[in-house]
From TrEMBL:
Keywords: ATP-binding, Cell cycle, Cell division, DNA damage, DNA recombination, DNA repair, DNA replication, Ligase, Magnesium, Metal-binding, Nucleotide-binding
Gene3D superfamilies attached to this UniProt entry: DNA ligase, ATP-dependent, N-terminal domain (1.10.3260.10), DNA ligase/mRNA capping enzyme (3.30.470.30), Nucleic acid-binding proteins (2.40.50.140)
Start and end residues of each ATP-dependent DNA ligase family profile domain: 294-407
Protein origin, superkingdom: Bacteria
Molecular function via GO: DNA ligase (ATP) activity
InterPro entries in alphabetical order: ATP-dep_DNA_ligase, DNA_ligae_ATP-dep_bac/arc, DNA_ligase_ATP-dep, DNA_ligase_ATP-dep_C, DNA_ligase_ATP-dep_cent, DNA_ligase_ATP-dep_CS, DNA_ligase_ATP-dep_N, DNA_ligase_N_sf
Cofactor: Mg(2+)
Protein known as: Probable DNA ligase
Role of this protein: DNA ligase that seals nicks in double-stranded DNA during DNA replication, DNA recombination and DNA repair.
Gene: lig
Reactions catalysed: ATP + (deoxyribonucleotide)n-3'-hydroxyl + 5'-phospho-(deoxyribonucleotide)m = (deoxyribonucleotide)n+m + AMP + diphosphate
Amino acid sequence: MLFTQVVETSAAVAATRSRKTKTAALRALLAQVTPDEVEPVVSWLSGVLPQGRIGVGYRTLTALQAAPADDPTLTVAEVGTLVDRIADLSGPGSTGLRNELLSDLFTRATAYEQTFLMQLLGGELRQGALEGVMTDAVAATAELPTDAVRRAVMLSGQLPRAAAAAFTGGLDALSTFRLELGRPVRPMLAVPAESVESALDKFAGDCSVEYKLDGARIQVHRSGDSVWVFTRTLREITSSVPELVELVHRLPCRSVVLDGETLALTDSGRPRPFQETMSRFGASTAHELLLRPYFFDCLHLDGVDLLDLPLSERLASLERVAGVHRIPAVVSPDQAAARAHFDAALERGHEGIMAKSLSSPYLAGRRGSAWQKIKPEHTLDLIVLGAEWGYGRRTGFLSNLHLGARDPDGGPPIMVGKTFKGLTDELLRWQTTRFPDFESHRDDHTVYLRPELVVEIELDGAQTSSRYPGGVALRFARVLRYRPDKSPADADSIDAVLALLPTRGRNTTTQE
Ligand SMILES: Nc1ncnc2c1ncn2[C@@H]1O[C@H](COP(=O)(O)OP(=O)(O)OP(=O)(O)O)[C@@H](O)[C@H]1O
């Protein structure tokens, strides 16, 4: 297949907001790929390289200035091989060789292909939000049930691999995707609930009500003496958290997969700020802050996968293997006990509570109503699209943030507002130093960024607005913190913002 076909399809997908049109464009292309081409094509269209980051920065790419080819002749296989070779380079002389390979690739590409390659190699095309559409297209082209493809994607965390299995081995190949010790699965996620009472009503009281701790999500795997620790975005951080590794080593089992939250506590037992926990995830050397785990789910124990069992059974396994490290929870509480648990969580400095259906399986990668989160304030995780230069006391600092919500159909983020409220001097300095690394372009007032950074915003609600393309704007938005544990694909979608519009009768700003 010619590479240009992939580039054209990517443009066609980006040009429409209609999920149906996107799926149709993807299907038309997928119907023509050979088995070898499935993985790279699915990967590129999702905006990622199968090889991951290959150490080629945007600056290197813009410095290339290769004259474009007149006609498209590059094939998918050729591009795949060249990128493989670049990714494999290391050691002395690799920079020169890498530039030679890049020049070779770029001189053989048309101007149109060059633009695509720049974005793809520079990490600017990343479109995690396209995953749902792509999963549908793969299932439809391979004539398989979407759920089967989705399950394989969630268990492997790799859509291109699942797609290749779907095309080459059908349902049988997809059913071989199992939870594998050492390979993280996508975490199950929650939807916001309006109040403790409404969540409890939904489950008719048949639920586990747990503290929602303000730490960082962890998934730990153990197989015999080997232990792995992963973040919410499936990044491995085993070597940064030796105290967690040691604790998991000591659990009374041969193999286990646990889902939980980790954080450090102050001397008086209150949670330390989220940023401090996150800073441990990057560190590889000395650390004073000890992280503690609070587990809330068990996905595997001693050779048995538990994902498809109800939460009540998974909790029984969790209790057996890591009872003392369980998150504070009450099971099947009445309204008064659930509310008391909520109040206790807030009193101890935690974020709120989670109410979880005891009969639900573990739906990896899904944000579903089986888990409901209840917090006293509205917060949204939004994508930073740019920042304006400040004035007055903030002159010389990048300040007022442009905020975007995720397009659930895989398009670019949709701007929903701006804010500079809540930005501390430290954050202003950080933004001013770091934002140029994410810059896509700028004008006199604003530095525009590639959609890579996620920031958590607290707000009073939303209002209709003709100023922004989604027809909705944030009300009284203020910055809480950056979310380095989230990628734009994890940001809240425009639907989450629309759900806060008072006209929909859902503007329940407080839970009280
Ligand atoms: N008892 C708990 N059960 C599940 N998740 C918990 C619990 N306590 C804290 N958490 C954290 O809350 C998150 C669940 O909320 P949600 O599914 O909405 O994810 P999120 O998008 O990361 O939300 P938030 O921004 O509120 O942390 C988990 O990812 C986890 O990090």
